[in-house]
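Key idea: predict the complex, not the pieces.
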Amino acid sequence: MKDKIAEKLKGLRASKNRDDVICILQNSSTPVSVEDIYEKIKKTNNKISLSTVYRIIEKLVNLGIVHKVTTLDDNKALYEIIKDSHTHHHYMICVKCKKMIPIDDCPVKELEKIIADKTGFNITGHKFELYGECENCARKDKK
Amino acid sequence: MKDKIAEKLKGLRASKNRDDVICILQNSSTPVSVEDIYEKIKKTNNKISLSTVYRIIEKLVNLGIVHKVTTLDDNKALYEIIKDSHTHHHYMICVKCKKMIPIDDCPVKELEKIIADKTGFNITGHKFELYGECENCARKDKK
DNA sequence: TTGCGTGCAAACTTTTTGCATAAAG
DNA sequence: CTTTATGCAAAAAGTTTGCACGCAA
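Result:
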């Protein structure tokens, strides 16, 4: 897994900042914002500027290492490491508490094939998100 | 259909601007940005301000008449009228030309039920988008 | 007459860019 | 030494807000 990333980074210069960003992305179970990454790195006494995080993220997206995730009503972008298909998954987002709960596997793969056959569109990716009320918030509402 | 919208607007004051915004949303086959709406209304010699469009859109979203759609790499929000379930659909977005091509029906509804049963999450909505290369762009590439 | 809807300008938030400098190869 | 990566500050882009005024009810 890690080697795959290293492969994609081949040709680029070594950069502690980039390593830090990748590390944070790898260790977070849900998508993070540029601001999140920036704050986390600063807390570890490593200096970094916001624009550097933006530039690193842009590069990682272009290299296919990271991808953008959008949220229900937030105006800022979130990002996550692209996992291999085995662990690739989606989220249920609670409209009350905004928590993002991962859905096991990806239920969209088969759909994708069917639609590709039907339409001739060469599908390379997808986005799938569910919105609703999580169990916690539903419980609170009843009280 | 139209009556449904009128019903949701009950209690609000009449507003030409709101009517114009709804009209544009109804007549566009793909999601539009606030800026798009603003420009279109201005072209018809009707004066409106950007913030008014934002406020109208916000209201329409809260009333469940319109919903937000997110895009691949655009930082601005797009909106579309919520159609009844019969015509509710999703988009394939071409990563080359950015065109949004509607997918017939909504293939996610059954998935939603299965996941709701499995997880106890009370699902109220979803987002589903496919990315890839449209036939046009694929043809150009081969040349 | 009451108060919702609107325009305008200013504020705010997120993201991008220019430029000089530091660091990698 | 050459070129990429970075920091800082300013600019841009998108969205929100405050306030005064007009218009629907």
